[in-house]
Amino acid sequence: MRTGITSASAVLFLMMAVPMPSFATESSVTAGLMPMPASITRNVGGFLISTSFNVGITGSSSPRLERGVARLLSRLEDKTGVQLPKEIRHDLNSTLIVNVRSEGPVIEALNNDESYSLTSTATSVRIEAPTTDGALHALETLLQLLEPDAHGYVIPAVVISDAPRFPWRGLMIDCSRHFEPMEVLKRNIDAMAAVKLNVFHWHLTDDQGFRIESKRYPKLTQVGSDGLFYTQEQARELVQYARDRGIRVVPEFEMPGHSTAWLVAYPELSSGSAPVAIRREFGVSSFVLDPTREETYRFLEGFLAEMATVFPDQYVHIGGDEAPAPDWKTNPRILAFKKDHGLSDNDALQAYFNQRVMTILLKLHRRMVGWDEIFNPGLPKDVVVQSWRGEESLAKGATQGYQGILSAPYYLDGMKPASTHYLADPVPRETTLTPEQQKKILGGEVCMWGEHLDQRTIDSRIWPRTAAVAERFWSKQEVRDPDDMYRRLASVSLELEQLGVRHLSSEDAGLRELAGREDIEMLRTFATAFEPVSFGERVQQQHTSQLTPLTSFVDAVQPDPPARHAIQRTTTQFLATGGQQTRDSVEAGEALLRFFDSVGASVPEVEKLMETSPRLATLRTRAEQLAELTLIGKQAIEFRKTGSVPSAAWTEQGLATIAAARKPGEMVQFNFLAPLTELVTAAR
Amino acid sequence: MRTGITSASAVLFLMMAVPMPSFATESSVTAGLMPMPASITRNVGGFLISTSFNVGITGSSSPRLERGVARLLSRLEDKTGVQLPKEIRHDLNSTLIVNVRSEGPVIEALNNDESYSLTSTATSVRIEAPTTDGALHALETLLQLLEPDAHGYVIPAVVISDAPRFPWRGLMIDCSRHFEPMEVLKRNIDAMAAVKLNVFHWHLTDDQGFRIESKRYPKLTQVGSDGLFYTQEQARELVQYARDRGIRVVPEFEMPGHSTAWLVAYPELSSGSAPVAIRREFGVSSFVLDPTREETYRFLEGFLAEMATVFPDQYVHIGGDEAPAPDWKTNPRILAFKKDHGLSDNDALQAYFNQRVMTILLKLHRRMVGWDEIFNPGLPKDVVVQSWRGEESLAKGATQGYQGILSAPYYLDGMKPASTHYLADPVPRETTLTPEQQKKILGGEVCMWGEHLDQRTIDSRIWPRTAAVAERFWSKQEVRDPDDMYRRLASVSLELEQLGVRHLSSEDAGLRELAGREDIEMLRTFATAFEPVSFGERVQQQHTSQLTPLTSFVDAVQPDPPARHAIQRTTTQFLATGGQQTRDSVEAGEALLRFFDSVGASVPEVEKLMETSPRLATLRTRAEQLAELTLIGKQAIEFRKTGSVPSAAWTEQGLATIAAARKPGEMVQFNFLAPLTELVTAAR
């Protein structure tokens, strides 16, 4: 029987609880805030939530605002346990007054005023906003302010004045590679609203499935979807759901490439070769729509007109990326067309196609969005380019007068830490763009591609990391301290789970399934040390397709688990004094020892579990490496603590073990190799 | 920093893992089986699941069976991680052959043949069933048989022949007191299918809300539901979903009592007084439909005819319970009616009402089900009485020729252990009913009333306990060993969570919300010692209504947590030798010490948490009691181990502390007071 083991999660909590001196000021009031408001002043005292709490809407009211207030009340009840009156009043004697100047536009619009102010005292809370959207943001801030004190739950006395930095703050979810049920999308939209994102970019079609019903072209889903698609009624419901939360829905219909699902249903639209089935494999397909035939445009006109009745947003995303189109270089008819129209290459032909589609969209009073590839000097200026190629490409567009949104640094399947995404700025401090050009950068979008996830794991890939990016899009440029971000992210992460997303519980569920038993404490501790490899690395390690079961260890573990940053930070703290022992460095050393101890101790337990769990048994090498790595960590700390110097052989051996652990295996990687390397190097 | 603490969950797992000598034989092959098949023979070896696994349907096929096979394949993939071919073949060369004689009736029927046989060898698996329903049951058994071995996942070689003991094996869910979204019902239907239940009894109307859309009487939901109801389209979808899994849907429309929601919408149907709003309070209401006016029957005829188009099942439940109806004793018109028709009292008037409703149902080719109160000597024999009053009432009906189903011992809101429900038998061994009368007992239904739960907590109230009752309804009377049931329940519980119900993850979510932090290991250990009090006790301790927030500690903790039985069993094992030390008793003593140690050690940690969590702070007294109780437990074991005798004062004090801990507090109770009392008494 093991003794002396403290679970890793407890250790990590303690590490994270050590306050960083730089945030001592006002840190309590901002603990739950993300994104950080433009301005916040803390006053003394606060407003205690009690059964006499009530809400009055003054100024412009609307069913949408009332539903927002009803959600606020329900969440406040859940968080405080206090039963609250549900009637919404319309007078100034209420404890919470929401004063909205106007409902704002009938559908969400890009240029909507989303600002608000929130003033709380010991006796009342007052929200002012020019539009309902601003008020909805204020209600989310109110919930994030809630904090416990000796008497109950309190809204601290503050004066907040807030407005977003960028008007386009999006999350894209790919529902083609793997279909996501409505409830998954709804809970993700709830979470988006909580962190003030305002664009849900719905990637509805791709080679692996056509996910939106067309009554006009029913084969698109009959043949192109495995029966997994959204009816128009469901799509309208989701648009309404998002609208209720101040979120626009921008649908994406990929063309002319990524179009296997169109073409398996309507092969007559193909450029020559047509697929016989939707694509199960990932990667770029060579099937493309035929841009040279009028039938194609008549089809698209019919389809887009139908979609315009489902999606009211001003913007429609046409994809436009990755269309290698070998047929365009070999099909004699297409070659002739290119020649006739003076289209020198495939890019020119795609530009022609985009122009034609744009004309269709303009007739439908829609504006076009597309990925980098649509960018073409001949393109009219009211197109929006979504940059997956990077900041440079985005800036280039802006200098030429094109509006753009940045996505390249926000690809979640890169499995990068939240801090990496967080520090990438659509308009970085060092930008060379003029203020006028900067205005062309509308904001950014987080992209969640769906190859390696399903409804069970998607939440942990999106959250909480996306909350950090949401802050990048909303808050001032100078709000960019990763330590402070992680401090607040821990709190927001919990709030998001309570709101319905399952990034925390899905890891437990996955580990339980792997372990085949309810008690997974040791496996959870073991898992603390790992994170999934990036999309690119996974593809190299394992052949996956749409049909691959996604219930491996890599699917259970979270990207950027709280452990990762905590260990890095604690290591920095431990090494900061250059060998001198301070209270901070001693505490940090103890915390690191406990971490290595508990994670190391989990190894034999998990190895025992492997005997009855064949799917865990594949992790044997990883387990052995983990045992070695934690031992090295403990030894390194002991050297440092005792001031003794390890042998060169020890250092060499330690670094070699770390190097070996970096090698690919089981699609997971250790998340503490960088600080461990620092520890080993520092001991020398 | 604490040391030497092992989490309670790990301890409990170890305790449960100690094999009980009585099940050593064949215990591995039955580990995941629930309900236990009628006959099972284990042979040597088994069938390894690999990528070459494929399924052939021979005999009668149907889209329903094919969907069932598709679900099997998907779940097998999830559990094994092996990607399987999805094409269903129709030849005898498949590795799994499903041979069904006929699809069975077009809708689920009571007398459907649900039997099946399953034979597995090292090279193939063969399922035979007279109907699709039998085959669907066999597929669930197949999944429960799956076990890991050194090479992967294996179906052990067995010969199973199986059929249910009772034809009516139900679960009732009350969706009126709290509305349950469709996905909650769907995942519960998935879980029902996994344990071979076959009736979903849908309690759709009650004082607190009318939950099914009527196009003919739209005010029923417009006025009577807070907007929370199922559309007819959704109801049809659920019927289809259940049918796909071999489950009938019996809708319940409560009348003439429990009818506030009818009457707030259509007050003209009332017996005199009519409500002004749906009822928020619980308990019995005095509003009833007027049984003396023809308008009432015309209304019901219209309503039930409409519902017959939504619910194809042969049975319709009309409630009929708890209709005190003061108006029937005071309204002059009703008094006159009673006199004119020779109806001596309210019971007679209700019997008249039931007769009239029955006539309506017969015209619609439906049979009537009602609670105990509908039972009346004048009632035609083809009514089915659902007994919430008990076995005696049920048996009395049977002797008079009425069909019945038992529910009294299966009320989940009593928060009783699974074993208590498990041992209650619709036709107990000692029955005095003749074999002919016994046939009148169709089976039983588990009842989940909805006063004190919502969509976040319902799963943990229903599961895994209902799986034990499902075995009672399916398996032979003599399968009734609680220890063996709990051994298998642990495995089934996990399987149910993987299938989608959230009885495990919802406790974590609730505790996280209470703690306000992600790491809840200590709070989870603390919670291990508690369970919710019964519905009746909760009502005495707290005034609750439909509007009460359900996010207290009592809502997070599970009824009958695995700890409860494990501690009881380990205590029995520890004390079994009468003081003599055997290997078993020593091991049991160590396990108990670890439990008391870890739970006791959680107390100061949780008390620290209370400082920042006002909603946990209300548990202070409970925490202090827990610290005392675990100390007493440890001392009692030490006395026993060392053979020393405690002072009379110690025993008296210990028993007094236990008695104090039994007193009501925070709507939870300690789940180990019985074994603790045994330990204290034994030490004496």
Task: Give a description of the structure.
The structure is a homodimer of 684-residue chains. With 684 residues, chain A is an alpha/beta fold. Helices cover 45% and strands 15% of the residues of chain A. Chain A folds into three domains: 8-14 and 504-683, no CATH class; 39-162, Chitobiase, domain 2 (2-Layer Sandwich), CATH 3.30.379.10; 168-499, Glycosidases (TIM Barrel). Chain A contains 28 helices and 20 strands. In chain A, strands 1, 2, 3, 4, 5, 6, 7 and 8 form an eight-stranded mixed sheet that branches. The first copy, chain A, has an eight-stranded parallel beta barrel with strand order 9-10-13-14-15-16-17-18, surrounded by four helices. In chain A, strands 11-12 form a two-stranded antiparallel ribbon. The longest helix of chain A has 28 residues, at 583-610. The relative contact order of chain A is 0.10. At the A-B interface, helix 1, helix 3, helix 18 and helix 19 of A face helix 1, helix 3, helix 18 and helix 19 of B.
Outline the secondary-structure elements.
The structure is a homodimer of 684-residue chains.
Chain A: H1 8-17, H2 27-30, E1 39-48, E2 55-59, H3 63-80, E3 88-89, E4 96-102, E5 116-120, E6 125-131, H4 132-145, E7 147-148, E8 153-162, E9 168-174, H5 182-194, E10 199-203, E11 205-206, E12 209-210, H6 219-222, H7 232-244, E13 248-255, H8 260-265, H9 294-310, E14 315-319, H10 327-330, H11 332-340, H12 346-363, E15 367-371, E16 384-387, H13 391-399, E17 403-406, H14 418-423, H15 435-438, E18 441-448, H16 458-462, H17 465-474, H18 482-499, H19 505-515, H20 521-527, E19 530-532, H21 535-541, H22 553-556, H23 562-575, H24 583-610, H25 614-617, H26 620-642, H27 648-662, E20 668-670, H28 673-683
Parallel strand pairs in A: 2-3, 2-4, 4-6, 9-10, 9-18, 10-13, 13-14, 14-15, 15-16, 16-17, 17-18
Antiparallel strand pairs in A: 1-8, 5-6, 5-8, 7-8, 11-12, 19-20
